[in-house]
Write a structure and sequence with these properties.
By secondary structure, this protein is of the alpha/beta class. The chain has two domains: 135 residues, Rossmann fold (3-Layer(aba) Sandwich); 157 residues, Glycogen Phosphorylase B (Rossmann fold). 36% of the residues lie in helices and 17% in strands. A six-stranded parallel sheet has the order 9-8-7-10-11-12, with helices on both faces. Strands 3-2-1-4-5 form a five-stranded parallel sheet, sandwiched between helices. Strands 6-13 form a two-stranded antiparallel sheet. The two termini are 40 Å apart.
């Protein structure tokens, strides 16, 4: 068994899968168990290289961070079953990794999930850094690959009709966990107007649904006026199923977790980046396009409407056949 330890957010976990999957194949791991807090890890269980996911609280992962004393019995049991442990809790020189090594006979590799200065300066992808750290620590030499999530969805259109032409839906998601990462909502609205004759739909995630302000207010007003579809799901799996039910021709979102999820589902994705370096943190895959300001890691408001519209029209299909 390969045991993965991770405490990052939705998109961070999906990026680690770009290294976890090829490593599991090289190790010929029969099972991959993730101890992870991100909802994307639970989503990935049984739908990716991840076979099972357990929350850190359920196995007492906090006991690994203690300076002394026994580990939680459930965590110790997992470590006893593991042949390999891939920890994204810190590098090999950290106290938590030294304690991990002392508590298991498995081959244990610690990876610092944060980008090194050289990674940021060279504008290289974070998964390349992780793959290099993995090899340097005695693990397999791997080539990072796009994360993939496999969902079984009905092959009929939600309307129940089959075999006819449908105008493609491009789903716009103007939210993100961080305000600085959010392209202005009014530009998303203007983008929707500029994409005609493409149909546009909208998504609001948990952060936006909890707020009575932007972007929820503008999106709901837009949907009331146009009748465009709206996905407003606080649950990640529910949001994914609603997204796939639209048979989307594309997804446009900010630098956030749901953008990484859409990319992992194989949906043509346009990711808008501002303060974070897109070359380092973008979702992987040829089906992913990035819109960023001319200067790296700058104000997201510098990303121009015309630029995003041009990329979306080029990147997302205008119509698709529903089978």
């Amino acid at each position: 068994m390969l045991l993965v330890l991770h405490q990052g957010a939705i998109g961070d976990f999906l990026l680690t899968m770009s290294v976890i999957e090829p490593a599991a194949k090289m190790w010929k791991a029969e099972r991959v168990v993730a101890v992870a807090s991100a909802s994307s890890a639970r989503l990935a269980a049984g739908r990716s290289v991840i076979d099972r996911c357990v929350h850190p609280d359920a196995v007492g992962l906090h006991s690994l961070f203690a300076s002394r004393g026994p580990l939680d019995a459930t965590l110790q049991s997992l470590l006893d079953q593991a042949r390999w442990v891939l920890s994204f809790l810190g590098g090999s020189e950290t106290p938590v990794h030294r304690r991990l090594i002392a508590c298991t006979g498995a081959q244990s590799i610690g990876i610092d999930p944060r980008p090194a200065p050289a990674t940021l300066a060279g504008r290289t992808h974070i998964t390349g850094q992780w793959a290099a750290d993995l090899a340097r620590a005695g693990g397999p030499v791997v080539e990072p690959q796009p994360a993939t999530l496999r969902f079984d969805m009905p092959m009929t259109h939600p309307s129940g009709r089959t075999g006819h032409r449908e105008t493609a839906v491009v789903v716009l998601h103007p939210g993100s966990g961080g305000r600085a990462k959010c392209w202005p909502t009014d530009r998303f609205v203007a983008l929707a107007d500029s994409l005609v004759p493409l149909r546009t739909g909208w998504m609001l995630g948990p952060t936006e649904l909890e707020s009575a302000g932007e972007p929820a207010r503008s999106v709901r007003a837009r949907v009331r006026a146009t009748g465009e579809p709206l996905i407003a799901e606080p649950d990640l799996e529910g949001a994914v199923r609603a997204l796939l039910a639209l048979r989307p021709a594309g997804y446009v979102g900010n630098d956030g977790g749901m953008t990484h999820v859409a990319a992992a589902l194989g949906v043509p994705t346009v990711a808008i980046f501002g303060p974070t370096v897109s070359d380092t943190w973008r979702p992987l895959g040829a089906h992913v396009a990035v819109c960023a300001a001319d200067r790296p890691a700058s104000d997201i408001c510098e990303v121009r409407l015309e630029q995003v519209g041009r990329v979306v029209r080029r990147h997302c299909a205008r119509e698709r056949r529903v089978v």
